[in-house]
Amino acid sequence: xxxxKLAKLKAKLASISNDIDTADxxxxxxxxxxxxxxxxxxxxxxxxxxxxxxxxxxxxxLEAAKKRLExxxxxxxxxxxxxxxxxxxxxxxxxxxxxxxxxxxxxxxNTKNAKLRVREAETKLVKAKHRLLVxxxxxxxxxxxxxxxxxxIEVLEKELxxxxxxxxxxxxxxx
Length: 175
What we know:
mainly alpha, 2 helices, repeat
């Protein structure tokens, strides 16, 4: 009868050992998953920072283009006022006006392009922030799983220790 109890305890001990091994491998896998998620999070944060910097640069470019446009517009007005007196100045004004119009068109085109780049950067920023949120949520779930698995390991280790004590007691009783 004691041999049967001992066999049952050994079987239970083997089962608990297998459970601990399984829990250890799950914990290792979870830790690897957490490390991967941390790397993904870091990459997403870097991408968000890069997009923020790019957005700031594009905004600065847009402001500079607006200032250049204002400057060119003011210059064009000054030339228009001064050219009414002299025919030669009028011809120069027409050339400057054509050049100014081309520059204004170019600046307007640059402004449009800058606005498009800002919108694209903002879209990328929103997407990156969304990915960051998804990764953070996934990390929280992984951490919760890890905590649950660690507590299961502690319970299994306690059961294993109890089983070892019982085996030792049974072996001492058999002697």
